[in-house]
Amino acid sequence: MKKTIALLVGAMMVLASVPGTAKNGPKTKHVILIGLDGMASAYFDRTELPTMSMLMDEGCWTLAKRSAFKSSSAINWASMFMAAGPELHGYTEWGSRTPELPSRVVNDHGIFPTINSILREQRPNSEIGCISEWGTIKCLVDSLALDYYEQAADFEQNPQHLTEMAMKYIKEKKPTMFTIVYDQPDHVGHNAGWDTDEYHKVVRFYDHEISRILQAVKNAGIWEDTTIIVTADHGGKGMGHGGIKPEEYETPFIICGKGIRKGGEFQESMMQYDVAATIAGLFGLKQPQVWIGRPMTQCFR
After folding, report:
1. Which of 91, 97, 131, 175 could form a cystine bridge with 127, CB 3.0-4.6 A?
2. Structure confidence at residue 12 (pLDDT)
3. Pairwise CA distance, residues 176 & 119, whole Å
């Protein structure tokens, strides 16, 4: 009997040491998800981005995360929040506000399960917020699972409005899960072109805005318990996107902070729908059966 127990204990110790067999408990208390609509990996190293570079140096990253197809906005924001592709969540067009295909599964709110809704179900007392510069985001995050949603004023009128909203919410509520979606890289790409001076200028602007958000997290006293994620829905080429060029479907994924190791670039495959699964893994949440996303456990500490 003693020999059997010793063998079982030994086997458990071996399994615990195998990479990728992370414990199921929470690894962080707060996640800040920052999305930059239209930020392409192809042009990432063509301008100075000190804030994102610092996060990359201190955490893990890939420039090879692939969008779901078509490589356009609503399809990929939905995939990012819902841990599944359009074949399952049903949002199939650039501006989808409701699914064109019947969602394979819907929750009690009548929407495909999102990272926000499973966090609400499994941790009802969580403070969950989302703000954006593009109104369609509200249709994709399960707004009924949120404590707070707001859309910023027009970028041309007040380019810093969304960041100021984010800083105020972080200070006052110290959110468990907070999603911030900036829209202008996509707008500039369509109007002036991707990989143009105008495009690089707006990405640099948002790099600075991200630094202000990080400072707000520090000022709120939750920096040591927060994981930061910076990513995008799709890239672009010329003055458009939606196709099958790498410039259109390859996007950055940067993760840093609580529960994340200082691992640098990772080589494992990552898809858009792995973002929500990774956040669920950080919070120790159980994934819905319909989700196909995989947590990037190689980044976990």
Report:
1. 175
2. 45
3. 9
Smallest CA-to-CA distance from 165 within 203, 132, 190, 196 is with 132
Structural contact between residues 109 and 74, judged by C-beta atoms closer than 8 angstroms: no
pTM of the complete model beyond 0.90: yes
Q: How many helices (H) and strands (E) does the chain have?
A: 10, 8
Give me 70's structure tokens.
Answer: 């078509």
How far, in Å, CA of 281 to CA of 175, rounded?
A: 18
Q: Taking a C-beta distance cutoff of 8 angstroms, is the pair 255, 34 a contact?
A: no
Grouping H, G, I as helix, E, B as strand and the rest as coil, residue 290 is coil
Give the strands of the sheet with 148-151, arranged side by side. Answer: 148-151, 128-132, 177-182, 30-36, 226-231, 250-257, 60-66, 264-265
CB count in 10 Å sphere of residue 201: 12
Q: Do 122 and 177 touch, CB atoms closer than 8 A?
A: no
What 3-state DSSP class applies to 249?
helix
Peptide bond into 245 cis (omega under 30): no
Q: Exposed (0-12), middle (13-18) or buried (19+): which is 45, by Cβ within 10 Å?
A: exposed
CA distance 274 to 136: 21
**pLDDT, tens digit, 9 for 90 and up, residues 8-42:** 444 444 444 333 334 568 999 999 999 999 999 99
CA angle 218-180-269, nearest 5°?
A: 100
End-to-end Cα separation, the chain, in angstroms: 35
